[in-house]
Amino acid sequence: MATGRWDAQSLRDSVSRVLGCGVPEAGRLTARLLALFDAGRPPRLAELIGFLYHDRFAQALLTATEGRWGGLILLDPPVMHPQPEALVTLPLPQLTCRKELATWLGLFDHELSWFADFAGQQARETRQALHHYRYQWLPKASGGWRLIEQPKPRLKAIQRQILREMLDSIAPHPCAHGFRRGRSSMSYVTPHIGKAAVLRMDLKDFFVSVPTARIAALFRTLGYPQPVAQVLRSLCTHALSPALAATGEHALSWAQRKRLQSKHLPQGAPTSPALANLCAWRLDCRLQGLAEHFGLDYTRYADDLALSGGRELLRLAPFVQGAIGAIAREEGFCVNHRKTRLQSKAQRQHLTGIVINQRPNLDRRAFDRLKATLFNCVRHGPASQNREGRSDFKAHLAGRVAHAGWLNPDKARRLRRLWEQIDWAD
Questions:
Q1: Which of 179-183, 246-250, 360-364, 407-411 has the highest mean pLDDT?
Q2: How would you write the chain as a 3-class SS string?
Q3: I want to staple 43 with a disulfide (CB 3.0 to 4.6 A). Which of 23, 47, 91, 164 is the partner?
Q4: Of 85, 114, 122, 81, nearest to 227 (Cα)?
């Protein structure tokens, strides 16, 4: 049942062939299944087994036919399941079993098992040479640590293939602006420019909080049978090895350590941003509905949430914050209330470092710091300003100047004049 087509005719045929019962009995069991589980895509294997174990009619039918079937196993080949109407035109690879998935990825069966980590060995592995990821702890500006999990070349190539040929074909929710081609921080802040009030909120541990069951459900929505969907999920998730990533771990809470040591989306894998956006589809739908109910605009950039509207938002903010927190928790996420900010027009309104009171602009203090850095580079040489020891300080500084010009071309002309005076041969 789990690997075949989930429709009345196919299910009735499977039940009657395995149990050797008449068509009416098989049809009754099929009707009970389709009444409980939606037609088109089979449920998870655990749900299906639970139904057959607890349903009285199914148990009576199994008992009545036990002497005839004796454990007959059908060897029908698995099939791709129907996709939702919005996805039927996507050029997705047709993969009906693990063997076809391994062939598509150019792997042997044992290599697929190794990279998917079926045995859960990665969380217990203490040798770096046998691990699929490299770890790097970065301090957060707000305090604490951020773990970057970088896949090694072979696994990274596998994840990039999944990203290019599967995930890139699916458009996230229109309100999601992070990690999307054609979207940027500018498109994220544009709906909120010049608004009387802007509410900014933040999701805590965004990547780690994405439920892994939702990742497998996403691949099953694309039409892949459950065994294939589980392998795809395993290739895109990871369990932390405490022995190899001890640095910075002492600064994490017990709950954060437990989440990292279980399967989660690694921040640093090519597939994680796209999967996080797609798995947050229902969160975006519900928050957009909440915003439209109160006449607000809503956008999301990775873990940053922004809602804006008229002066009535200043009065409604406590209720809206509570509703967003409840919706996020129901969807498996958690709001970091310490980073929540309600900004009126009388204040400096900013999102992702962009001031949006009247038009997109660079923060005045950030502009002054960049101008001072360029001036000191002209006067004392660029090496004196590379206090963080960046390997390519010239490219770093050029990027900051280009970002300022992207936001405010008038101010950027003054920065560009200073940039042209720097002697990089020094």
A1: 179-183
A2: CCCCCCCHHHHHHHHHHHHCCCHHHHHHHHHHHHHHCCCCCCCCHHHHHHHHHHCHHHHHHHHHHHHHHCCCCCCCCCCCCCCCHHHCCCCCCCCCCHHHHHHHHCCCHHHHHHHHCCCCCCCCCCCHHHCCEEEEEEECCCCCEEEEEEECHHHHHHHHHHHHHCHHHCCCCCCECCCCCCCCHHHHHHHHCCCCEEEEEEECCHHHHCCHHHHHHHHHHCCCCHHHHHHHHHHHCECCCCCCCCCCHHHCCHHHHHHHHCCECCECECCHHHHHHHHCHHHHHHHHHHHHHCCCEEEEECCEEEEEECCHHHHHHHHHHHHHHHHHHHCCCCECHHHCEEEECCCCCEECCEECCCCCEECHHHHHHHHHHHHHHHHHCHHHHCCCCCCCHHHHHHHHHHHHHHHCHHHHHHHHHHHHCCCCCC
A3: 47
A4: 81
Question: For the segment 259-301, what is each residue's pLDDT rounded down to a tens digit?
Answer: 888 899 999 999 999 999 999 999 999 999 999 999 999 999 9
Helices 56-69/45-54 angle, 10° precision: 90
- pLDDT tens digit string along 6-52? 888 888 888 888 877 777 888 888 888 888 887 777 888 888 888 88
Q: In angstroms, rounded to a whole number, what is the distance separating the alpha carbons of residues 197 and 194? A: 9
Average pLDDT, integer, range 84-100: 86
State the pLDDT at residue 152.
94
